[in-house]
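FAQ

Q: What does a record look like?
A: Structure on top, sequence underneath. For example:
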């Protein structure tokens, strides 16, 4: 992934994480920190836990897609982005195209 792609993904990821509600901050913060520390398996597990707790929160699916992509789990990333598409068609569609282009 080029530096522009990495920068774009990080900016999108950060902008998404900064909008989480206070009640979920601890678990979301843990997931983000795991992602920052390249502990992708842990981050994916935490995002799956967040999805289980709030399956209607599209942002969790998008973040799972970002982490899965960085972990090299491209099919899982595409599936997560597709699930996110229900609430964020433009961003998730762009990410699917970008992952498939790899």
């Amino acid at each position: 992934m080029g530096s522009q792609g990495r920068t774009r993904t990080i900016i999108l990821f950060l902008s998404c994480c900064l909008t989480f509600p206070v009640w979920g901050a601890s678990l979301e913060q843990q997931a983000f920190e795991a992602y920052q520390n390249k502990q992708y398996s842990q981050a994916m597990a935490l995002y799956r836990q967040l999805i289980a707790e709030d399956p209607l929160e599209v942002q969790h699916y998008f973040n799972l897609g970002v982490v899965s992509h960085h972990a090299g789990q491209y099919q899982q990333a595409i599936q997560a982005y597709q699930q996110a598409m229900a609430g964020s068609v433009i961003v998730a569609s762009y990410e699917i195209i970008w992952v498939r282009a790899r």
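Q: Is there anything notable about this one?
A: The chain has a mean pLDDT of 79.
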